[in-house]
Design a protein that fits this description.
single chain, globular, 2 domains, five-stranded parallel β-sheet, Rossmann fold, alpha/beta
Amino acid sequence: MKVLVVEDDRDQLDVTAHMLRRDHFVVIEACDSAQALRRFRTARPDLVVVNLGLPPLSGLELLRQIRAEAETPVLVVTGPNDGQETFRCFELGADDFITKPYVFRELTLRIRAILRRASSGSREGTEPRLSVADLHLDPETHEVQRGSVVVRLTPTEFRIFYTLVKNAEHVVPANRLFAYVWGTEGGAANSLRSHICHLRKKLGLDGSARGSIASVPGVGYVFRGSVSRATGSGEEPLPGQVAAQP
């Protein structure tokens, strides 16, 4: 697997590249955003690790440009005081983040978890489409349609929302959602809360007729809303039941 590492601290870049190569990754290095874009376009890596503070363009702007061209997974490296920027990263399509200083073992585990999710994308496409109130979920495109408006979710956001909708009116434990987001190695509650927050905002899940995502403290999350079942036989939708669209 090819990983593009974008880091303006050359010592940090050297160490990170060495550790990833030791874990059998093919590593492409870039020390600024301009070089990163060139190498991204020529090497087409499987994943990008990008430091938030980059010259001459910020890591946020680099993330924006990558997302304009491809769905390549992006892991953002943030500083301990980059809280607001972290939220913005998720809004722009980041898949996960890790805060400096970090343990290299955690970095490699997060990278492998993201790559597993990306490789399972084709299998996800075989999942049925779902309808919930006026929302329609398409696993193949990671899109949620509301009327004539189509909302594009990141793969991580879609997996979380799809899981919640499939289990509408039932609490989904946080550890099950962690497995979808970070794999079997565990997860970070702050990251999960950020994804849930962005889903609420993007989809307008404000507790109205189209539903809401509620937190169940100490347990997990639950989607509440009138879930419809698409049928071709004229059957009435059953409250709380989900079925595939043809």
